[in-house]
């Protein structure tokens, strides 16, 4: 187990390094000088030269990459040009919104998808299965940011039950904060739930045909008990896999949904950095998001090894 | 063939939806009820049926015409992006399957890395330097599609490489290149077709997201995503502005997803669950 773990962690580190190199290359090799992009065309040559020096643009590329990397490893991501504050603090502050939002969306999507998928599998090819199928098609097809607009239209504009956007901060109380994140989380969760429902249904159907479920039935267990006690726990591995794979889309969805609901999260930060041409913030936020996706997939990989001893044997 | 399609409701529905959208998109090239960029301030924010079929937006532009042209803009961007991503991805996938060894290890790792960057973020990075626009959107979506197709074709090609007739071709001294073209690609083409269809749905969704953020085609070209972004301001006043473009996006994605599922059933019965 320790050898597998070491190998996986090594490969994780190499992947993360490669991602940092990719992000750095895109940001620095594309036509256009980051300093002049940030300052616009009206900047004086002196200001431009000063910013170039501050950003280290007068150094050779490999040195700049290494300097950035060393900074990232020490938690020093440089200073935001527009906000004049350390980027690391900015990211940490925004993460306090994006992370709970993503977690809520994941919990909601699993809470919707697993019961729906299992029920559809139980009553396969019946009317319930048909409607669950429709739900999952609709969930996948509806853009999360549109669902967000519809939810605002219904729950804020018409009914007035929920805030239409914005985030009061966690200081305002846990309940108030969670309430502000509820509609955005639902908008994000629906698409995820659509995909996960399908996976859960297929997976349960497959497991229901396995020998151990037949044995469970043969020893006199009722259909529901065989399903929930034996089939469902075994059918969850593909659901976890899909959760990991979907994380990229969750991140992308968060960027959009945060903009719909005016949430001061990481996605909104990336978007604002783009419109303010704050390359330093962009570069670090993009790296952060990519690293998050890679680490999530790494954790899912590890989760298999813990859940399934057969994979452990195979990996050795 | 037609009886085969009619017997499969998912395939049939998917086909009807996508063909209708393609027809509307093509029609918009030669005819729309009004000039989509023509502003008529006196007619602004008219609800559906009171001015044109679907009403007007905050500039008094005809929503029906904008939706029609939006269909063309959205479909054509998605199509070019997927075609580009699928071609490059497939080439990479079958090449790696033919080469194996270090090329495989490195190639697949690069795929993992690209896959970790959501197209919205790569579009933002590209947009900062190249400027927002259709080219940036296509490039960002296509880049994301490359690992998707590389992984799919790599896996599928590996299976074909283990077949007896491929071993025979290897034994006869045929090159990896020749085998890839005569045996591998024809045998995995069905899987590629199915994946292209499904990814078209995803590309439309992504394009809409990019346009929503202002990273798609610049105004005045109407796109479904930007129509939604504009609708935000008038949500309480003119809800149809938010309903209709979103419905168009959802319908297009639904159509391509159903078509993909239906095609998978039709072309690859082994995969059926």
Walkthrough of the structure:
- Chain B: It is a multi-pass membrane protein.
- Chain B: This is ABC transporter permease subunit.
- Chain B: Belongs to the binding-protein-dependent transport system permease family.
- Chain B: It is found in: Cell membrane.
- With 316 residues, chain A is an all-alpha fold.
- Chain A has two domains: 32-76, no CATH class; 88-315, Orthogonal Bundle (MetI-like fold), CATH 1.10.3720.
- In chain A, 79% of the residues lie in helices and 0% in strands.
- Chain A has 14 helices and no strands.
- In chain A, helix 11 (247-260) packs across helix 12 (266-275).
- By secondary structure, chain B is mostly helical.
- Chain B has one domain (2-267): MetI-like (MetI-like fold), CATH 1.10.3720.10.
- Chain B is built from ten helices and no strands.
- The mean pLDDT of chain B is 89.
- At the A-B interface, helix 1, helix 6, helix 7, helix 8 and helix 11 of A face helix 4, helix 5, helix 8 and helix 10 of B.
Q: What structural class should be given to the helix and strand makeup of chain A?
A: mainly alpha
- Share of residues in strands of chain A: under 5%
H-E string of chain A: HHHHHHHHHHHHHH
Largest sheet of chain B: none
Oligomer: heterodimer
Shape of chain A: globular
Radius of gyration of chain A: 24 Å
Q: What structural class do helix, strand and pairing data of chain B support? A: mainly alpha
Distance between the termini of chain A: 8 Å
**In total, how many beta strands of chain A?**
0
Number of domains of chain B: 1
Q: Which stretches of chain B are poorly predicted, pLDDT < 50 over at least 5 residues? A: none
Low-confidence stretches of chain A: none
The domain tally of chain A reads: 2
- The helix content of chain B, as a percent range, equals over 70%
